Amino acid sequence: MFDWEICQEVQLLQEVHGKTPVFNIEDSRVWKVGKDSGYSVKSVYALLRGPFEGNSMFVSLWKTTDLPSTQVTTWKVLINSIATKVNLERRGVLVDTNICSFCRMAVESTKHMFFECKIAWLVWNQCYAWMGITSVDHVDPVSHFLHFNLLNAPVQVNVVWSSVWIVVVSEIRKHMNKHIFQGGVINLSEVFIVAQLKA
Ligand SMILES: [Zn+2]
Predict the structure, then answer these.
(1) Maximum average pLDDT range among 2-16, 123-137, 177-191
(2) How many Å separate Cα 13 from the centre of its chain?
(3) How many domains are there within the chain?
(4) Lowest CB count within 10 Å: 88, 165, 175, 180, which one?
(5) C-alpha 101 – ligand 1 centre gap (Å)
(6) Cβ distance 74 to 62 under 8 Å?
(7) How far is ligand 1, taken at its centre, from the CA of residue 104, in Å?
């Protein structure tokens, strides 16, 4: 018997260890996410939204009038599921290196790609100057986004501020993708001006 066959048997024995077999019931598939073990679109939606469901931060995200595709991109950034090299590697997708494609000075994580990398950092600085913000110290996506939600401000004001954040993140993503798949140099002013116009 090959080693891998032994390994599989050992793994199976570990999985069934301590479990009591149930007889006289036909095998069937079980959807464990739903409350009643039955599959439903609602349960998939809840699974995808994860622990953030109902979070006020996401309420302001979905309240903006940005395009749904743009909202989804930023939502993925906030829950760290956007396709960066670090995340692709974590999912078992083969990448030649996890080093940032732009600066080649750090691993390409979500926070690096959108907030720490020189390109993103320069775009954000233009945005801060435009909005009258001195700076935002946080590079964690959620903390950064929350800086664009003003305390005690009317909902409509925060929707506008959230919209600015969303389009800047989205434009950074779009231009970085363009650079990765089509080559060329990223024009920082263009990234910000497009974001500004959309906002
Ligand atoms: Zn970088």
Answers:
(1) 123-137
(2) 37
(3) 1
(4) 180
(5) 7
(6) no
(7) 6
Question: What is the distance in A from the centroid of ligand 1 to the CA of 179?
Answer: 13
Question: pTM of this prediction?
Answer: 0.66
**Average pLDDT rounded to a whole number, residues 48-64:** 65
> In Å, how far are 49, 50, 59 from 64, measured between CA atoms?
18, 21, 9
Answer yes or no: is pLDDT of 136 > 80: no
* Ligand 1 midpoint to CA 55 (Å): 30
The length of the chain is 199
Residue 133 is which amino acid? Answer: I
What's the distance, CA 89 to chain centroid?
A: 15
**Domain span at 186:** 54-198
Contact of 104 with 91, CB cutoff 8 Å: no
Are 191 and 123 in contact by the 8 Å Cβ rule? The answer is yes
CA separation for the pair 5, 13 (Å, rounded)? 12
- Ligand 1 centroid to residue 138 C-alpha, Å: 16
- Is residue 97 included in any domain, yes or no? yes
Whether 15 maps to a domain, the answer reads: no
How many Å lie between the centroid of ligand 1 and the Cα of residue 99? 8
